[in-house]
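Q: Here's a chain of 245 amino acids. Please give me its 3D structure as tokens.
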Amino acid sequence: MTVSDVSFSFGDLTILERVSFSAGEGELIGLVGPNGCGKTTFLELLTGLRRPDAGEVTLPTADRSVAYLPQSPAFRPGFTARGTIEFYTELANIETDPAVFLERVGLSHAADRRVEALSGGMRRLLGLAQALIGEPPIVMLDEPTSGLDPDMSDRIFEVMAELTAADQVLLIASHDLSGIETHANRVLFFSEGHIQLDGTPGWIREQTNTESLREAFSETLRSRNETGTQVGDGGRTLDEEESHG
């Protein structure tokens, strides 16, 4: 997947400006940044829900190249978890037992439970199971752990990490900086319409002279607010930093 000089605006409000980015197999990438910085818009551009004003998005050539899980997935009422996945496998003409997808996300025990009776975390896992139908090479999730208890948040991140082990690419827009720091092998810091930092959690901590991704987040915003510049301003990446010695 490659994004080349993508820009997007709502009227006179610039959301993203000349953003470039690429991702390879097996990456779990956390998208972090303040509210309104463009994370969700970026995911929507990648999925094709929105079209960029300029630039190009290139995705793998697959029958279903991208799966997208919004923050609040909606399901048809009255269906069980199994019935929900069965409905979508038939819709996609996928000849796979729905139980396989439920097992992958740890919902086998709730297969016969109606979607209305599922907890918030279980609904997110069911949405993830739905997103996996067709084995898309890229899976995108918007705030998948928002409002969940720590144990369920950990479970969701563990499932996502297992998917990257199978060479799928996962992009996660999230304010759960602890989960991102623990599980992501790459982090993009969005601010002011740009990717300000792009690298491993460890590299970002080093660039911001902090001890955690949470501290790095605060330091990045503080620097922007106080001086109008930012640690890593200009979107310098790990590879670029190494190439400059």
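Q: Can you summarize the key feature?
A: Residues 229-245 have pLDDT under 50 and may be disordered.
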